[in-house]
């Protein structure tokens, strides 16, 4: 089986590498829909399946893995901030709040399609502007939805986390993916 990760994300690459399966990383030829055009769930589904489908069209012999993530705080969708000021603004919004992460996962081949949204919640403690600025300048989470890295110092910003798969928060839900891949590979689940 030829596995392809439809993503250029270094975070997703690192996560998939944990499974010790050979895979290729390919950039999807797909323009993601932007916020406001759909509900968060619809947006995650559209973008995840769009990424996977764009790679499968060019590589129909492969099995394609794709993922997309949306962070929602109240009624606001938190994008990748892109700069320090935007990251600080997002964390000020999240301070003392619960942020819901919806991570879409797709496994597509010419014979089958699997898709699921894996939810995960992060409850932030009340954060001072100084804490936020120091965190952002230290870790530079500018390419992360929600403006933090839970696998790094970002965990210090939380009161608690709720969810079945902590890798969903990083961007690729490995627990669900292992269940889907087990019949196709030799992944040993403990």
Please give the structural blueprint.
Layout lengths: L2 E4 L3 H8 L5 E4 L13 H19 L4 E11 L2 E3 L5 H11 L3 E11 L4 E12 L4 H11 L18 E6 L2 H5 L3 H8 L9
Parallel strand pairs: 1-2, 1-3
Antiparallel strand pairs: 3-4, 3-5, 5-6, 6-7
Helix pairs in contact: 3-4
Structure described in brief:
The protein has 190 residues and is of the alpha/beta class.
What would the principal axes of the Cα set say about the shape? elongated
Which structural category do the helix and sheet elements fall into? alpha/beta
> What helical percentage do the residues reach?
25-40%
Please report the total strand number as a whole number. Answer: 7
Can you tell me the CATH topology?
A: Maf protein
Question: What's the domain count?
Answer: 1
Please report the distance between the alpha carbons of the first and last residues: 23 Å
């Amino acid at each position: 089986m030829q596995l392809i990760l439809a993503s250029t994300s270094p975070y997703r690459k690192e996560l998939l590498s944990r499974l010790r399966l050979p895979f290729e990383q390919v950039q999807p030829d797909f323009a993601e829909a932007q916020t406001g055009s759909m509900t968060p769930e619809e947006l995650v589904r559209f973008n995840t399946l769009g990424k996977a489908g764009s790679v499968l069209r060019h590589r129909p012999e492969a099995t394609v893995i794709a993922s997309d993530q949306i962070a929602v705080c109240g009624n606001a969708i938190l994008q990748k901030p892109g700069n320090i000021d935007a990251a600080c603004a997002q964390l000020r919004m999240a301070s003392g709040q619960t942020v819901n992460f919806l991570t879409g996962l797709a496994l597509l081949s010419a014979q089958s399609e699997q898709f699921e949204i894996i939810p995960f919640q992060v409850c932030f403690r009340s954060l001072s502007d100084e804490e936020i600025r120091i965190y952002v300048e230290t870790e530079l989470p500018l390419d992360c939805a929600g403006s933090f890295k839970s696998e790094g110092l970002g965990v210090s910003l939380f009161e608690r986390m709720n969810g079945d798969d902590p890798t969903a928060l990083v961007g690729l839900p490995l627990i669900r993916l292992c269940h889907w891949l087990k019949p196709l590979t030799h992944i040993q689940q403990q």
